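Lecture 7, part 2: worked example. A protein chain together with iron/sulfur cluster.
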Amino acid sequence: MRVNWRSIKWAKNSYAALYAACEQSGILLHETNKPADDITCYSLNSIDEPHYRDEIADAGCITIVGGPHASACPHEVATYADYVVVGEGEFTLPALIRSIGDGCGHVPPGVCSGDVCRPSTSQVFLPAYRPFTRVKGTIEISRGCPYHCAYCQTPCLFGNRMRHRTIEGIVEAAEHYRDVRFVTPNALAYGSDGTHPRLDRVEALLRALKGHRIFFGTFPSEVRPEWITDESLDLITSYASNRKLHFGAQSGSDRVLRLLKRGHTTGDVMHAVDLCHDHGIIPVVDYIFGFPFETDEDQNASIEQIREVARYGKIHAHYFTPLPGTPLAGTTPRDVLPEVQNILGNLALRGKATGSWIEAEIRFFSRNENQYP
Ligand code: SF4
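Predicted complex, written out as structure tokens:
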């Protein structure tokens, strides 16, 4: 039985992780540009999904779909895919492929197929799986998030309990790279329950990676603003090579932050910016515009804060996307005020702002790359 993995730009890390997990079970996932052979697997986010729906529905092989979108809307995806993996795939995908190979018709836990939907019965024990093997990916050090930000799919996909890879496992993966970057919802939460910092464990990790150029709290991960302290910044400046730190503010309005259940205030953001400045670190701060309940005053409050942040740092701005599976699913984004667009545009011209604050999809793909079928 030949099993394929549909090559999709934004799913490269999922391919790396699931290649390793399947290989551990004696299954090879061959990369392909179209559905073929016996089984083809897909990982889709909600922006990609409309572009692959017809291809999956028309495929002449068994199709398995997972990823953030499939996990958020398994019943919808099961109308055109043969199997839907809900949540984490390391254990479920090999179990499903084995079950298909056996021809027993058994639908494993964590899989939907047709009208049958079996809830998952376990969470992945992260240290039991390597983050990648032959197919290289980024090093995922932690998974799961105890916060409940209303726009975010991460808790829906990975749950609210934070789990961590061991330092030994991270060091082993890092041997494949000179520069090491990490995937985690909050780099400073390494080793913790996600709400109470364990900087001793962060330091042990960073110390164990000495000899590498470490990028900690920068793309593709970030940190939360209230976790930025003199102590955590001392660790970053002592062990890491980055002199930028990426964190999310999301709004300059405390009313919006409360409605989003972000769990921090605008004051926490400005305190973090000041601390970064004191430690010689450039803050790179995320904002989202277009929340359905955002008033003109809220957008102006964000712009006021952005002007302050831009004095020392940089802005990364997005337009809100109501993702399935989140509390804001199905809501309608509001427009960004023309004056807000102008100010962000001017900041972009000065090299102070990046992102896409008018059209959400632009940040996920460039039409020139022609990545969709
Ligand atoms: S936005 Fe970050 S902190 Fe909030 S739920 Fe998502 S991963 Fe967690």
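The chain is about 35% helix and 20% strand. The two ends are 25 Å apart (CA to CA). Keep this in mind for problem set question 3.
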